[in-house]
Structures are given as C-alpha cells and as structure tokens.
Amino acid sequence: LTQCLPYVRTATSPRENCSLGPREQVNQATSFLDASHIYGSNVEHANKLRAYRDGLLLTQKSSRQNILLPTTNDGTCWNNRNPQRCFLAGGEFTNLFSTHTALHTIWLRQHNNIAKQLKAINADWDDEKLFQESRRIVIAQIQHITYNEFLPIIVGKNNLRQYGIKLRHSDYDSDYDLKTDATALNEYASAIGLFFYSLFSDHIFLHEDEEGNRKTKKSWSAIINNPELLYNGKIDAILRYLLRETISKPGLHMNNYFKNEFLRGKGNYGLDLAAMIIQMGRDHGVPGYTAFRSACGLRQPANFSDLADIILESLDLDELAKLYDHIDDVDLFVLGMAEKPEVGALVGPTFACIIGKQFQKIRRGDRFWYENFFAPSAFTLEQLGEIRKTTLARIVCDNLEGINEIQPNVFTLADIYGNCPMHCNSTIIDTIDLTQWIDQEPRLKLPITKATLEKAVRLGAEHAKRLNEAEADRIRRQGRSGNANRSQKLAVYAHSNLLAPKKESLEISHRAEVLREATKVLLRGDGLSEQERLPLELDLPTLQRLLPEVDVSYFVGNITDFLGEENPSIEECLPRPLPCDHTTKYRTFSGWCNNLKFPHYGNAFAPMRRLLDPVYEDGFDSPRIMSRNRGRKLPSARKVSNAVHAEAPVFHAVYTHMLMQMGQIIDHDFAHSPVSRGPGNAILDCSRCDSAKTVSIHCFPIPIESGDPYFPHLLDNGEPRCIAFTRSLLGQLTLGYRNQLDQLTSYIDASFIYGSTECEANKLRLFSQGLLNFTDLGFNREALPQGRQERDCRSQPRHPCFNAGDERSNEQPGLTVMHTLFLREHNRIAASLSRINNFWSDEKIYLETRRIMGAKIQHIVYNEWLPIVLGCEATARYDLVPRKTGYYKGYDDKCDPTMTQEMATAAFRFGHSLIRNIFPRMNAEYKEETDGLDLKASFNNETFYYSLETGHIESVIMGLLGSHSMGFDRYISDAVRNHLFQKSSNPYTGMDLPALNIQRGRDHGIPPYNSYREMCGMHRARNFDDLKDVMDDRTIAAFRNVYDHVDDIDLFPGMMSERPLKGALVGPMLTCIIGEQFQRLKRCDRFFYENDNPATKFTPDQLAEIRKTTLSKLICANSQYARRIQPNAFLMPDDLTNAPMKCSELSDIDLYEWLDRQFCVVDHRVINLGRTKRITPCITCTCTAEGPECHSMVIDRCESLLTDYLFSEVIADTVCVIQCSSLIRQRSRQL
C-alpha cells in the first residue's frame, strides 16, 4: 500500500463582498505588524492576557522567581513524559519551541517594564491608558526593529529603497496610502515566509553560563511543546544560544528533525515540514517559480539549464528535471530556496522581491504605522526620536538579568571589529527615554616681587639675544644653513619643510625664547641678589607647578628692543575681536571665540597642554637622555626602533588602508608642531652628530650605532653618522618648563581644507558662488589648485604640487587624494546651495558649506572611524557615540579642548603601524591593473596625479578602499623606517619615522610609558615581567634587550606594543589617551555638530541629513571610478556584512533642508513665514524658518467639514476619512 503524509487543506475564507471566484484561505492573525503575538488578535483573547492593574499583562513567577508567561488549560504541553500546563500569549504558536516561548516572554516583560515606567512618570494615568500606551510603544518598537535591523539582513540593504521599506531617519513618514491593501500575500504566508525553517541548526546548545564554558546539547524534539526549560530558569541559556550560535547556511535544505520527525510526539513517525510547505503552496494555488520571476522583473528561465547561474551549485539540475516535467511546474518554495542569495542578503532575488513587496504593503497600508503623522494616533516627533533608538539588543538587555554583554546587532554574530559585545549599561546600546511621554581653579602664587620678575625677564631677553647672535655667527662661519637650504638631496630639507613654522609661530617663539631664559635666571639666580632668588625649599615639582602660573605678559610685551615691533599682518590674519559675537553660527578660522568665556581655548598657535608634568633632564628644558639606572644613558632612538619597530609583513584581516589614510587627515586637522629655525628662518642642518654644539642648541641628532641593519654607522669621511633631528619650536607663553605649540586649532573643524587663519583661507577661495579654488587638468576637472606651498616638490616643474588648507597635502599620494575628495565635496555642496538659494552671496554660500563640511567630517570621525580604532566599549565609555536623533546636551563652557602633548607627539602616531610600503592602484572593480606606488619613491612627488594611463587619483582611491592596511602592532614598514623622504640618488639619505617619534617625545619632555600606566587604569610596572598584562613575551624581550630599566621605556614604543583591546584596533593606553582627547573635542566644542546651542545648532531636519553622511558616500559623490562601494569604507568589502553597493543606494544629504525663503510652498500654496494655512480640510501647515511644519487636525464636529468644504475635497483627505468615516459613508449613500 502507498503510505501518505496527512495534510488537511487550509480553511477557506469568503471573498470580498462574498463574490464568486477562486478559493481563498483564512488568516487568523491580523496582517498588520501589530504585536498580535503578544496581545492577541481579538478583544476576548486580549482580555485574557491583561492583569487589569497599572496597564500590566498577566505574569506568573516560577519557583526560581523568574517572571514567566501566564498558563492556560487549553492545549497539551509535555515535560519529558508528563503533561504540563502550556503558556498563554497572544499567538497560537507560543509553545511550539522553547526558543519561541523565550522571545514571547521577553516581549511580555518589555510591555510591563514600559507600563511601570509610564506609571512612575504619569501617576494619574489609569490602567486602560497605561496598557494602551504601553502596547502602542511596544508595537512601534517591533516595527522599528523589523525594518531597521531584521529586513536589511534578509533582503539586503541594497534593496530597501527599491521595495519602499527603507526607514526615515527623522521626521514623519507620509507614504500611507488609503488604497494600499495590507492583507498578507498568500505567497508570503504559505511559502516564502516559512523560509526560516531552513536556517535551524541540527541541535540547540544551551549556554549555561555567561562565559560559554558550559553548553548543554538539546534536540529540537526535546523542546517542542515542552515548557520545562522556561520553568527551570533556562531562558538566559536559550537567549545566549540564539545570540551566539550560527544559523544553517541558506539553501534548499532542512535539518533531519524538520524533514522527517516534525511534531512526532510519542508516535513513530513525524511530518516532513518541507513537503508540507510545498503541499500548502499547491493547496493555496500559489503559481510556480517561473511565474514569480517574471512578476518580479527578473529573467525567466525557459528550461532547467537556464537555472545554472541562478541557483546554488549544490542543487542537482538533472535530479530536478526528473522530478518535474517542465520548468514551469517547479514550486515557488523549491527554487526560491535554491536561489543564490543576493549580495548582502540571506535570500535570493525572487524571495527578496516578494518579501519586499509584502513589507511595503504592511508599511504603506497601516494607518497606525509608527512613523505616520495622522492625529490622534501619531507619536510626537520627540517620542518618535526615542522609538528610533530601539534595538533588539536593548530589549534583551532590559529583560534578562543573566545577559550582561551583548552585540549591538543581535542578528549577526558578535565579532571584535564592527559588532563587538558591549556591556548592557553601555551608552552605545541606546535606551529609550520615556520622559517624552510625560502629561576654573585659583592661581597659585610664587614668593617673588614684580620688580624681580621684571628684572628676570629683562635678563632673559639679553641672554636670548646673545644666544641668537652666537648661533648666527656659527652658522654663517660654517655655511651650513646655506647648504641645507640649497641642497635638494637631503631628507632634512623635506622634513624641516613638512614641519615648517608659520610666521605667527615664529612671532610666538621669540617671546618663548625670552621666557625660557628668564626661567633659567630665576632657577639659577644668575644676575639676581640673594634676596631676589627663589627660596631653596621649593623643589622641582613645585616650581614646575608654580612658574607657569606667574603672569609676565606685561613685562614681556615691553621688551620691544628684543622682540621688535609686532607684525601688522598677524592682526589681519588672526583677528581677535572682543566681545565675542555669541549669535554667529560660523566658526572663526583660528578657533577664537569658540568658547565665549575663554576665547583662547583650542586656538591655533597655542601651547599644547599635558596629561602629566614633563620630564626634562634638567626639569625644564633639556631632553631626557639618562636611564633610571644612573650613570647609563638611554638607548639611541634608532636603536629602539631597530629592536622594537623592525618591519614585519603582517596585514590586517579586516581593515582597509583607508583607515590609516583617514587617520592622517584627522591628525592634520588638529596637530602640527613646527621645528625650530635659525636666524632669518633658515633651516637648521642638524645631521652632524656634534650639531648641538657646532650649529644650534636646537639640534638633537639621533646617533646610528655600529651594527645598524641598514645605515652605515660612519659617513664616507669617517665621521659618525646621525639622523638629523631639530627640536620643536619653542612655544611656551609662561615661565616654567619648555613647551611646544600647535599651529592648528585643536577642534575638528576641517582646517586641513580651509586653513587655520583668515589669510590662509582667502588664498584657497575662488570668491565666486562659495567655491574653493581648483585646477582643471582635463581628465581631472576638479583637482587641487596648483601652487608653491610645497617647498620640496620633487615632481616639478613638469608636474607641479598643490595647495591646500594644510601645507602637508603633498607628502604622500594617499594624503593628496583625500585632500582632493574633500575639496570636491565642498564645491559639490556649494554648487547645490547656490542653486537652492540663488540669492545667497558668495560669502554666505562659502561659510554655510564650510559649516556643513565640518559637521560631515565630525560625523565620519565619531560615527565610523573612532568605533573601529577604540572599539565599541571605549567609544561608549568616553561618550563618543553620536546620537541617532535629537541633540547632544553635554557642551561644557569650562572645558579646554587644547591638544595634549601625549596625543600629538605619541598616541596619534599609532597609524604609522598601518602604512604599507606599496600603495595599490585599482580599477572600479577593485582589481589591480597597474603597478602600485612605491611609497619611498612617492614622498612629495605628484607624478601619479597627472598619469591618466594609470588612473591618476582614481586608482589610488580604489586602492585605499580595496587593500588591507598593515596590522596594528609595533612593527613599522621600511618605507618610513629606513627611507622616509629619501632621495632616489642616495639610499642612505632617508630618515627613520619611529625613531623620530621617540626622539620627539624626549624633545617634548614626554614622561616614560610606565608613568601613564596608572593614569590609564593599569598598575605601575616594577620590572619588565609586569608588562605581561598587556604585552607578549617577544615584545618584553625586545624591551629588555634595549632598555636598562622598565621606567626607561619611551611612551611611543610602549603604547605601540600593547595588545589591542577586545573589539578595538589599539591597546589600553592608546585607547585612554585618544579617548580622553576626543571626549574633550566633543564636549568642549561650542560648534560641535550635534550641539543644542540655539545660535549654532542645525535644525533637526538638517542634523538628520548630516547623520546620513558616510565616507563611502562622500567618495561615491566625488570619484569617477567609485560606482559600487562597500558601505563602511574602513572595512574590506565582504559579500554579506559589507557588500559593495551601488552608490545610488547610499543615502546622500538632502540640501533642500537648507532652503532659505521668506515663504513656504505646500501643495502649490504659498504660506508666508510665521503664518499658518489650512492646506486641506483636515491638515494645517505653518511656515517656519526651518521649513513647513504640517499637522493633522483633530476634528470635533465632522458635520462642519461638509458645510465648509466640498464633499469631494473631504473624501480626498485621508485625515478626514479616518476621523469622519461614518458620516462620509452616510453621505455617500445619500448621494
């Protein structure tokens, strides 16, 4: 006898208006996404679920005090072999699997949590109000999670806009359509919507503990209709399984339980779920697969061989042809499951099409959709902003005590790169704020008189003058300055020009020289009487703290015989008007008046601040040269570089070279400490090992020892070889220890585009339509402007170098490319603003574009770049996570953003580890069709920029996006470790970048690595072995071999040698120093793009547009090659999590939010600014400075509508139809 699997046809449903026609099937749930699985689909069922107290749903407590679903006497559940009471919820399948029950339980708890919070803030709300509002919020949260987190993974981010299921980032949605029928598609309900059964793994593994050390294996048959796990308190273990274990790979398969044993119970045989789904499709009259390919606009296969490039290779087409007589016979479920998934999606194009159409219908056909603006069901914009913070991760965290850490995106596995586990109290996992539902230190004093101060300053000026004269005489006699300036063969020339002081810096350095010498006078007592000298009991730390507090500005300002008259152009380029204009929304170029109370905070040409007091050999000026083991010297910076930073060809598995390049452009936005110059601004040639005595006191050359792996330790003339090093320009504005200045503003303000003074900015402008100046190269219509800013341009005259806001733009190809992209983006935005507001002046367009560019760059830094570098956890800990909606309210007007020495001199040089020797050049498909650029031959060389054949800047852009960065570690590529600024004619003219970094730290008085361990939450190392908490044994051995004492380790090699934190690129100390700085750059910036300051803030809609910014979209908009690009430019392209998308699918900023008019136009009606008009019978709009604001009216008397308006106008207004449907039906019958 032939055996059959039982199948009963689905219950029928009458057709609309009881008309004749094909058989239709009934749906017992609503077709809307309305949480009916929680609340039920009818009033009777919903009432059974309510506690009728404070808006709560019924619960029960297990013996383990877990809050569980209530029980029901309906149905039979089993505990091993004994019947057990089932759980009661809104859905019929609550008890089907324990995993299903667990999620029902979480949503029950979520409802009750919300109800309790609403009760706390609205004590007068009754049970009904609390229940309905809690239900409304929960439904909105489920809708948001479904469309914001779930669907992008199922159908792919590329398809969201195409199917009309891409959510808005701000404001209301207006896509509701009265004519859209939200009824569930039969194809979805009976076939496609069941695809997830193929994703079930073979078994379930309960994670019994948070660490995942204990796992209990369970079969699916053991948890079906079995509530035992929930009663035994295993809900946390179930959720850990769902969060941490992988799904089965999508395809035409199901595990053995679902295919052979489904619902077997105590019998011998189960059902074949796959066969049941196929049979149900036939029962429901669902057409075959090919019909839907055609309906979705996809290529329709004519025969089985046409499927070869459509379906997965695992499906045997010959076997399929034996099963079905014709290609048109094949069931939708079968070939839909077998399709190759779309890039970035779990399903193929046919399933994606139908799923997309289903969820489009749900969204557009739901009058209560959470983004809709129809009164009275709409949320306020503030409430809607809070709903948009919802993530399933937060829901799980808030409702499970045993889950302490969770990945932000729960639908993808946790990883240490972009989805690292976060503690549940982290601010990265946003919490909904239900309140939207409510009806400086004193100065120390030095024991010294004003007369003594004035004398010390006068003596200091005389000493400084004599030192300068002596230095000029030495240089003149030896002719070294002239040689250095004339020689085009020395790397010292390129390096000195890279760190060249601006005229404003030189002015400051003259004052600083006087203050340095005045400090020495006070410390030594030279030229002072016994009564004028400082008390002997003042120790070094006390003097370091007291001397900078002494105000000597009056005395220094009067030493005109040494300082000379002030350069009038300084005032023109760096205006410092007072009082500050608190009403302007535009930054000054120098940072002046960003802080209204302390206008100098964060300014360009300001001394850097310190996290720890400096460590100079003499306490105030001389670089650290001696070991902690007295009598022994510190190792040469080059020796440390050889021991710790030698090249190792290890590429990062995930991050692109763009991560490094963006880091450099950020660094060039806020850090540029110039080096000292000789008389007449001459470059100091500090390459001789005795140059500190024979050339300048500012020389601090780096010795090369015998046995060096690359450089000969002797010159051709037999003299010892050194790497040239010039100490940084003096920059202190007070008495005390030597300090250095930053020529740029400390703020992230796009100064690398615009410059840090008004004079620099003006040189870069076109002064027409807000545009920046550019060069048209023909094949590159918008190149950087050619100019002589780069003094060491190695490709001129045939290939001139370029000008930009930062003078270092020609240093290497990747940097020049980034400058070009940002210039183009400025001009693209300016052109759009000019079209939108054609009455705006050039100045207005320029300033507004600069403001937008600064905001976009800040968003890229805080939203994309920092989370990768610091990791999710640290980004949250330092409050660096951008808000998804609303404004940042943490601005502190007592906060100083000034760059720290540790950040600029050591920590933010971590990117040197990421630099490749070769910069790949790629085409639009990320393929290398030409040789890459050898970095050691590309410094200050713009030849590539002019090469059409090799793809000019376009191939370099794609190379940055498509190539791996070097791994972050202590190893640094030879291109910068042996060949920095090397001249091609001499292989030994290069410099060593890590050695320069180490030497710069000693020059700036940066304390050793061990001094910062306690500050950053680690214990101070007593010996080298104590470093094992953050370093591996090989690294510790390298340090032990080169340093005499653990306290000798310089900050740069120390922090570069730490193991990265989990989920971060860098280790704990880099995280500490970088996090602290970026926290202040956000908290101390009055113009920070998310701030809520009324004078400086963007409108809510403008801010929502800025939040769309990604580096990928910016590249798309300004590159000829980029047509498809990965959404995250800092991660390598990946077919699932970071699949390249069409540029058109990436959100772009809508500049119409910057429309500036004295009137608004709504539906062809003009509304004057500040006025309100009734646009339709039931909608009013007000014209505000931020654009039209429209709201649906609450209609108290529908009869009056028909008196005031035509019946045709009323029925054409959806808002009227919703509120006055009864009267409209009545009037329709009369007509």
Automatic annotation (TrEMBL):
First-level EC class: oxidoreductase
Binding-site positions, heme b: 912
GO MF term list: heme binding; lactoperoxidase activity; metal ion binding
Keyword presence, Oxidoreductase: yes
Gene3D superfamilies from the UniProt entry: Haem peroxidase domain superfamily, animal type (1.10.640.10)
Keyword Signal in annotation: yes
Record InterPro entries: Haem_peroxidase_animal, Haem_peroxidase_sf, Haem_peroxidase_sf_animal
Keyword terms of this UniProt record: Disulfide bond, Heme, Iron, Metal-binding, Oxidoreductase, Peroxidase, Signal
SUPFAM superfamilies in the record: Heme-dependent peroxidases
Domain of life: Eukaryota
EC code: 1.11.1.7
Gene Ontology terms: biological process: response to oxidative stress
Pfam family, one: An_peroxidase
Catalytic activity: 2 a phenolic donor + H2O2 = 2 a phenolic radical donor + 2 H2O
Name this polypeptide is given: peroxidase
Organism: Onchocerca volvulus
